[in-house]
Known about the structure:
With 683 residues, the chain is mainly beta. It folds into 3 domains: 2-104, no CATH class; 141-402 and 674-679, TolB, C-terminal domain (Neuraminidase), CATH 2.120.10; 472-648, Neuraminidase, CATH 2.120.10. 11% of the residues lie in helices and 43% in strands. The chain is elongated, with a radius of gyration of 39 Å. The chain crosses the membrane at residues 107-126.
Amino acid sequence: MGEPFSGAMPSASPPEDRLDSWKEIAAYLKRDVTTVQRWEKREGMPVHRHLHEKTGSVYAYREELAAWASGRNLRVAQENENSLSSSIPAESAPSLEKQVTALRWKLILSMAALAAVALAICALWFQRTERFWRSPLTDARYQAVTDFDGLEQAATVSRDGRFVAFLSNQDGPTDVWVTQVGSGQFHNLTHGSASQVVNPSVRDLGFSPDGSLVTYWMRKRDGSGTEDIGVWAVPMLGGEPRPYLEGVAEFDWSRDGSRLAYHTPGPGDPLFVSNGSRLPADRPIFSAPDGLHSHFPLWDPEGKFIYFVQGTLPDKLDIWRIPSVGGNPERITSQNTLVSHPVLLDHRTLMYLACDPDGSGPWPYSIDVERRIPHRLAAGPERFTSLAVSADGRRLVATVASPKRTLWRLRLSGSNAEVSAATPILLTTGTGFYPRFGLDFLLYVSGTGTKESIWKLADGTSTELWSAEGARVLGGPAISADGRFITFSVRQHGKSLLYSMQADGTNARIVVDSLDLRGSPAWSPDGKSITSAAIDHGVPHLFRIPVDGRPPTLIVREYSVDPTWAPDGSFAVYSGPDIGTTFPLQAVTAEGESRRLPSLTLTRGARRLAFLPGGRELALLRGDIQHKNLWAIHLETGTERQLTNLPTDFNIQDFDVSPDGHEVVFERVQDYSHVVLIDLAGK
């Protein structure tokens, strides 16, 4: 009925041994149809055709195929003993099936390995990009807590989320206030008894674990040492304030209220952990390196870690954590900017306040403490100045401020100058800061959007002298003694640059770009060099930077920033390290030797100094962190005299004295702020 493809007679095998299609033949040999058709044409595989039907109608017998496969395998083995890749099993069809199965498993395992690698790559990509990250503030509900005309700051919330405490000058002095959420009633708890309670570099307010007390940071009136700092408490329902943790700057209770983490205001802000109180014999689990601060201690919900903010004040900071039993600190953020008020929504979601690299902000950020990719959560003209959270992570309380920086003139006389004699300086730029007197002009800095620029005001006309996109002026500019040149330092695209230009803004050039500059620069009286602080081994030191291109040289080996040269060039006065909330004034001669000064300790925010005509008196700011007045100190006798008497709401950030000593110009900062409640969705 048919004829064999190879010319042999048809097999006498029983019908059940017959395979009646290419598909059945291919399935028997564990190959595809194309392969077995090729074997028939090229290698004589025994296949039979029905001559009276279509060409594609074929059949074969298992016995013949097995015999052919055995002969084919032997032939291939003789040709190449080591080549088994294309052979068909020799003994029988079951042997063929075993080899095919083994090859199939190899293919499956290879594909599985490739899939695993692909999944690992995808997982790594998702981890680095956090494609599925979701902002904690998504669908959050915002509610204004305060609407006072005064200043509200340092807001915090009780553990159960029912009460909010904040600082306010609603009644005149800055006091501790409290309100029950939704009640619309506000209660002054301290009534003027707390003299110095504002410190933006720490968490000013808190609640005791049971919610019965409101705690607050305080420095004793007229105190200047670290021993004058402590934490006080006042009953939430009213009563007399009392010491809570003496000698402690900040603290945080563990979630169960059994352990206390706190730091003292000494050098390095030593961090301690105790069972509920401060003990003299306690040993710190951590202290920041020389010149650095460590603030905002925070327990994680599980009690394994204590988070804190470490770095150089005010704006070279990051968040770290350390095991609560002690050990090596671990860096969580790498933003190196102003960072404050960390809070944990759960054991992995950390929120905090931070400025952008260009100095704008601060705004709320969020980060997964394991993945460590920061996300900015908000942007706009308002700044966030404090952040706190309830124990369950569902309710946030923030202080939001709209700052305004303006310039004011004030004539100096023999008696204390009153603010009523001060007049605002009208600027076409709107804002102004870092004022400096020239011989016949006023120099200042103004900021718009993503850049800060240097302006000159002369004869009632403002002229822009220098600007650059993304640039932020560090400290303030300085004018040479002859009034011909201006120097200033900026941070631009992650790098600090020291510039010099002529007083009309021409011939601006970079003097040095190899130093990590800090604070304000100062011209030497001879105009041949510029003195500025720069970071060296993690600590700022004063360097002399020649304007002729020679390399900078170190002047002061200790912590030193913001120099001011005496008019005769014999010595410079500078600020020492900030410990607690105060720092000393020190001096160095032109030869680099230490020079004796009267014992002078100033409060944080008072680093700006200016010599009065004659060079024997130094003008400086005295007062607490939030409010200061201008004073003059005689550097030989130590005699002090007050030059201004400004009200508590007149906050001076910077100043300068005219060359004749008859006028002073102030940078005034006004923060219009309010407290906001944020209820998080999906918590």
